[in-house]
Design brief:
The complex is a heterodimer. By secondary structure, chain A is mainly alpha-helical. Chain A has 13 helices and one strand. In chain B, 40% of the residues lie in helices and 19% in strands. In chain B, the strands form two sheets. In chain B, strands 5, 6, 7, 8, 9, 10 and 11 form a seven-stranded mixed beta sheet that branches. A five-stranded mixed beta sheet of chain B has the order 2-1-3-12-4. Classes of the chains: A mainly alpha, B alpha/beta.
């Protein structure tokens, strides 16, 4: 006790004269960090308030049940909303099995070696490719080359294109989830005579699933805002009907928003704001689902 | 064990819930005998007109499906000339290169004028020292290599005030037309101006910048008339401001431009496309004004309709 007190006194005595200045510097740095952290949140809040003020009054029955119109009060987002839901569902159906299978292969089966390194590096690189490039690819492959199968500029072509776009992100997320399953589980399974397939099927995948689902949903919520690749493959702007099958023409919310924003009449910008609110609500609910899944099923090993 | 079951169940449930949505939304059925698709793509300038036509046409013929894209005039012709669409919206006439592409794919077509737009030259309301610019003055300001950066250089007697230019991006049909009409050569423009593909951005720029001079479609001026000053243009026959009357009569020259649709012959053979074009040129024409453009004169619509009918060999 006394020793400590003594040391403290000694410390105080040997305090260099510029301590006040150094402490102040520390405070200033802390404040600067706070401002930086707050900047993003404040900007987001301002945007949100602005959009809600502009658009909230336009969210009514007509808005959700009608196609776009030249008369703003008669205009709605039904085809765009249906198109977005169709697209996201198909993207989930296509990308989830592909992404998980790829991740399982890379983590559980692939031998560490040049092949695995090449695939892994390519996946990491693909995650950084601008989305318009996927649009060009989608136009060439899914719309033109496989047009007979996909129906050309259809919601299926759009879904395949967007699936390619999010696959790298999804694979990396799934790999991380699989890697987080401890080896002791695998060893125990092998120890009981299970085959590799049985181990993956009954132990690795179920345990990695919450992480994989979280990653999938986050990848999907990135895809929901994509516009450029869909315009590239020919998603439409005016369409008064909802897709009835995967080979039908379609449009999505971001394209509708983009179109309304560029119109001369003010009311269209209010419609755009209302559509942005809908898109944000969709996005936030998907993210909320991801967070809930993570918290509900996350395991500590 | 339980957790595994829940996990897989959850995944399936999410995917299922996601797929179960969508579909539905069929229109009330009152058959008029017309059905099938009418596919349109092309200029974003013409888009509001075609959108309005499509909307009304589908109320009359609920079983038809009109779709309209906005790939741009060039993008529209690319699709049109490989036979992917029935109608191409265009804010300028087809180029020779595009015509060749159509010919090489055996796509025969008809060009039809559907509306007028008046490219409007605007400035900040604070600029009360002029109301009119001649085409030569506009050319001196906008031509490539122009050194004009002050209003005093435009005309003697103009005050010493910086000039700031706003205009559409080089991909736009508006840019093509303005450069052709003012500079005398398509796509020839000085590059040092604030460009935006979104005309609303240009409106804001001109509104907020005291020395600003810009140009864009008449509809964007009309919607923001209280925030901008419209400049009359003297093309040799005196100063004329764009207005519904001067654009329709053609006296606002040279910046009145026609907007077009191109219809492929194979498209016109489909009854629903044919009926859509008829509607576009007859009962639908008041919609043109409603979305901010200017109607052709009735006799001009008759001329355009006659072209289509001649091709169809009816009436």
């Amino acid at each position: 006790m006394t020793g400590e007190a003594h040391a403290a006194v000694e410390f105080q005595l040997s305090t260099p004269p510029d301590l006040v200045r150094r402490r102040r510097m520390g405070r200033i740095f802390e404040l600067a960090c706070l401002v930086t952290a707050a900047a993003g949140v404040v900007v987001l809040a301002v945007l949100l308030v602005d959009v809600i003020v502009d658009g909230a009054g336009w969210l009514n029955r007509t808005f959700f049940t009608r196609p776009p119109s030249r008369i703003p009060t008669r205009a709605g987002i039904l085809p765009a909303l249906a198109g977005t839901i169709w697209l996201m569902s198909l993207v989930a159906l296509i990308s989830f099995p592909l992404g998980v299978a790829a991740a399982v292969y890379l983590e559980e089966y692939a031998e560490k070696g040049w092949l695995q390194t090449i695939i892994q590096t390519n996946i990491a690189n693909l995650a950084g490719v601008p989305s318009i490039v996927y649009g060009i690819l989608g136009l060439a492959v899914f719309v033109r080359w496989m047009g007979g199968l996909t129906g050309g500029r259809s919601v299926l072509s759009g879904a395949l294109t967007i699936s390619l776009l999010i696959l790298p992100v999804l694979i990396i997320a799934a790999q991380e989830a699989i890697r987080a399953v401890p080896n002791s589980i695998r060893d125990a399974s092998y120890g009981l005579g299970a085959t590799k397939w049985q181990t993956v099927r009954h132990h690795v995948l179920p345990n990695a699933l919450p992480g994989i689902l979280t990653g999938t949903i986050l990848a999907l919520s990135r895809a929901i805002g994509e516009t450029a690749p869909l315009i590239m493959i020919g998603a439409l702007t005016f369409i008064a009907f909802t897709p009835e099958g995967p080979r039908d023409a379609f449009t999505v919310l971001p394209i509708q928003i983009f179109n309304w924003v560029s119109r001369p009449q003010d009311d269209f910008r209010h419609l755009a704001a209302a559509a942005i609110i809908v898109l944000l609500v969709l996005l936030l609910s998907m993210n909320a689902l991801a967070i809930w899944l993570r918290n509900r099923y996350e395991k500590e090993w | 064990m339980m957790r595994r079951a829940t996990g897989f169940g959850l995944a399936t449930a999410i995917l299922w819930a996601a797929t179960a949505c969508g579909g539905g939304g069929g229109d009330a059925a009152s058959s008029t005998g017309l059905s099938g698709a009418v596919s349109v793509d092309g200029s974003s300038t013409v888009y509001p007109v075609t959108e309005a036509m499509a909307e009304e046409f589908q109320i009359m013929h609920p079983e038809t499906r009109v779709t309209v894209g906005v790939s741009g005039t060039g993008g529209g012709f690319k699709r049109f000339c490989v036979g992917e669409i029935d109608i191409s919206d265009a804010s300028r006439p087809i180029k020779d290169s595009e015509r060749e592409m159509c010919t090489s794919n055996n796509i025969a077509f008809t060009e039809v004028r559907v509306a007028w737009d008046g490219l409007s030259v605007v400035t900040n309301p604070s600029n009360d020292f002029f109301d009119c610019l001649t085409v030569d003055e506009l050319k001196a300001i906008w031509e490539p290599g122009s050194q004009i950066d002050n209003w005093s250089q435009v005309r003697s007697g103009f005050p010493d005030k910086e000039i700031v230019l706003y205009g559409p991006g080089t991909d736009s049909g508006t840019f093509d037309y303005f450069t052709e009409a003012i500079v005398g050569e398509e796509d020839a423009s000085r590059p040092d101006y604030t460009a935006s593909e979104d005309d609303n951005v240009l409106v804001q720029g001109v509104e907020g910048d005291a020395g600003a001079l810009g140009y864009f479609g008449y509809a964007y001026y009309e919607e923001n008339a209280d925030r901008l000053k419209l400049v009359a243009v003297d093309g040799g026959g005196g100063c004329v401001k764009p207005s519904v009357e001067t654009i329709e009569s053609g006296s606002y020259a040279p910046l009145s431009r026609p907007l077009y649709i191109y219809i492929s012959d194979t498209g016109l053979e489909k009854p629903q496309v044919s009926a859509f074009v008829d509607f576009y040129l007859t009962d639908g024409t008041p919609l043109v004004r409603e979305v901010g453009y200017i109607q052709l004169q009735p006799s001009q619509y008759e001329e355009e309709l006659a072209k289509v009918q001649a091709l169809r060999g009816t009436e």
